[in-house]
Amino acid sequence: MVINAEILEATLEHLFLAYTALLAGIIIAVPLVLLSLYSERLASMVMKFSNLVQAVPSFAVVAVVVPLIGIGFTPAVIAIMLRVLLPIIKNTYIGLFNVDPALVDSAKGIGLTEFQIIRNVRLPNAYPAIFAGLKFAAILANSIAVLTALIGGGGLGSMIFEGLTNFNTAKILAGTLPVIAIALFLDFFFSVLERRLTPKYLENDA
Q: Using CA atoms, how far apart are residues 177 and 12, in angstroms rounded to an integer?
């Protein structure tokens, strides 16, 4: 019972850490991409920054946060957020920019505002690319959250590293198996969500 309670507590900590960071990444990335629709300079800067962060190894991102911010929950969230920005930005950018210009012109022709065009034309047509990016970002956040245990992030990563330190196979598996289960669930969840939200005509084209 003690080990089960420990696994449950660690899993909840892990989920809160990983998906607080993912939510923060979405809140930052999506508005930046939407603004990039109207500024080539901003689009270039956003893509260059996200590519630069992605080029740095995950362990290095986690490590470099420590001298800049310290250790604990907040630095761990920032480290995960930096790693998930690229798939969210890149796929949202590709999805929104690759919408058929004829659809956008038609929407403008019937008097839709820019907000209405984004909401009713660009976003629905961009859903397949956006959800592919979100799925990858969610799975990436799940894995990076394990590494952030090294800087005080807690959660399942702490159990895994504690098990590795003490050569405790049971503890390693107790931390690892929930991480794998979460990744499989995320893949299924985002695939179902994508199918539900993607317009039928895009499914038929695929």
A: 14
pTM: 0.85
Please report the pLDDT score of residue 200 as a whole number.
Answer: 66
For residue 150, the Cα-to-chain-centroid distance in whole angstroms is 20
Residue 86 dihedral angles phi and psi, to the nearest 5°: -60, -55
Residue 112: per-residue pLDDT: 85
DSSP string, 93-156: HHHHHTS-HHHHHHHHHTT--HHHHIIIIIHHHHHHHHHHHHHHHHHHHHHHHHHGGGGT--TH
Enumerate residues 6+ apart whose C-beta is below 8 A from 75.
65, 66, 69, 148, 151, 152
pLDDT averaged over consecutive 10-residue blocks of the chain (206 residues)? 75 93 93 86 84 81 87 92 90 87 86 84 86 91 92 89 89 92 90 75 55
DSSP of 152-164: T--THHHHHHHHH
Give residue for tokens 């065009």: 117
